[in-house]
Amino acid sequence: MALLRSAGVPARTIGGYLIGDSGYAKQHFWTELYLPNFGWLPADPALGAKGGPKDFPLPANAADYYFGSISNRHIAFSKGLLQAKKISPNGKTLPQEDVHSLQTIYAEAVGNLESYESRWQDLQIIEKH
Fold this sequence. Notes:
Layout: H1 2-6, E1 11-19, E2 25-35, E3 39-43, H2 45-48, H3 62-65, E4 74-79, E5 92-95, E6 105-109
Antiparallel strand pairs: 1-2, 1-4, 2-3, 5-6
């Protein structure tokens, strides 16, 4: 994405998950680039370089396939970074350590809370059809 942007091509990060043969869900990021008169084109350089997880099936022509195509095993949660703003000027915000949704803030507390906890859990595929 950085290379595309440095060449003047609009590009954005896509944050989500890859689903493997065993049903596991692994956090994954890929990119989209914008082509005038065409729209957003997906690209996954990591999978194109055959750098996928062990039980993730890759086509023989992975470099060609993952430039312009994304498999149905990609689940996108967000497109581009969301610069989240505080809801309250007096609110206490917590930065996001594990970036799942590409948001800069994942929790905000206001008032006299004694404790609070918010966590992302990894996706789990419970049934395959």
